[in-house]
Amino acid sequence: MHSLVIRKLGAQEYAPVWKAMQSFTQQRSTSTRDEAWLVQHPPVFTLGLAGKREHVLDAREIPVLKTDRGGQVTYHGPGQLIVYLLLDLRRHSKGVRQLVNATETAIINMLAELNIQAHSRPEAPGVYVGDKKIAALGFRVRRGCCYHGLSLNIDMDLMPFTRINPCGYAGLEVTQIKDLGNTADCELISDALLRQLLQALHYDKLVFTESNHLPV
Description:
216 residues, BirA Bifunctional Protein, domain 2, single chain, 3 helices, alpha/beta
């Protein structure tokens, strides 16, 4: 039976969570259970491995961190749900493309529950409503295991996105669930998304931990 351990970490600074993901992935064994970490970050711009600093147009007071995930530049802030997926892809015989497709499918199906019609783009990972991006994806794979994950805009200040070229695309607009006429809170949305991830990634059950701390 494949179970997915869920950690609801609340509000956390970006760097410690990133370092904890690296440590978890480095230390895990073939018997380590897969985990999903739910978190929100204070304002931060992150550059992926393909990220170019010129896509950060006007950082001002918001820190810019170079990370080891895939992709270009994005913004994280309060009111955005982040789900970091720490999975053994070999256990499920999945490649990166299958992981991305399954994650996008889970987000699209969750949004459909909220009566929001969304879609993916083969040439640009993420989930879109019309021409506007509502969710971003970025992963890193080491020794057959992945970390990093997805960010979903729920009810946040979108202005910082205008200070970057989101995902490296000049003029790309973003949107969020609140602006699409749905007032569901983050807890309800996160639970719905976890149900869809359970199905899309072919887990048998979710196991919720009592701890809201990063694993050591």
